[in-house]
Amino acid sequence: MTGIILCGGLSTRMGSDKGLIKTEVTNWATDAARKLQDLGMLVKASINTLQEHHYTNGLPGVDLITDNITLPVKGPLLGLLSAHIANPTEDLFVLACDMPLMETTLLKELYNLYQKTDAEAFIFTNEGEAEPLCAIYTSAALQKIMTMLQEGQLTRFSMKFTLDNLRLATLPLKEDQKKYFRNFNAHADLNGL
Q1: What is the C-alpha separation between 16 and 181, in angstroms, rounded?
Q2: What's the DSSP call for residue 64?
Q3: Where are the alpha helices (DSSP H) in 10-168?
Q4: 144-156 per-position pLDDT tens digit
């Protein structure tokens, strides 16, 4: 399994690259990478073509996967499928860089589900809604999505629509766990962080 930090968004509402937002010690992308590395896996970062220089310096020691611009998709699905093309035999544990409150204990819960259950993707649900940006996608599931894309069967490119086409194993979030899935998209969201 390979960990993938999704950093490739344009961060237009934030006004600066979310993965490189400074923390006390480092930045959001590095913190996310460390949380997956704590599970004992190799971690890579998914970035867009404009970020390469900044992430080479801002995320030292983590391999970068640049979006495959030949794919006719956008958003997180582009990062996920680009990571799959770069690592076609690997199951991918993805974590968005803009979820800085995420705790390693929750990631371990999902990893334990993956080890014990037969499914194509492993996700948390929040009141029945999927949390697709902290999830495990098997290589078989990603190949299935690639085939659907190539055959014109992937009619929408949202992560939730993608999940509708996969056999899922889910972990419902408890009320006190929901805060860890908060993502931050604008400077106003950072108040109280």
Answers
A1: 21
A2: E
A3: 28-37, 52-58, 75-86, 104-116, 139-150, 159-164
A4: 999 999 999 998 8
End-to-end CA, the chain:
31
- pLDDT tens across 154-172, in order? 988 999 999 999 999 999 9
Global pTM value: 0.90
Domains of the chain by start residue, with CATH: 2-190 (3.90.550.10)
Q: Secondary structure of the chain: what % helix, strand, coil (to 5)?
A: 40, 20, 40
Are 180 and 103 in contact by the 8 Å Cβ rule? The answer is yes
The amino acid sitting at 18 is K
Q: Are 50 and 70 in contact (CB under 8 A)?
A: no
Sequence-separated (6 or more) residues with CB below 8 Å from residue 16? none
- Running DSSP on this structure, what letter comes out for residue 94? E
Look up tokens 């990631």; give the residue: 107
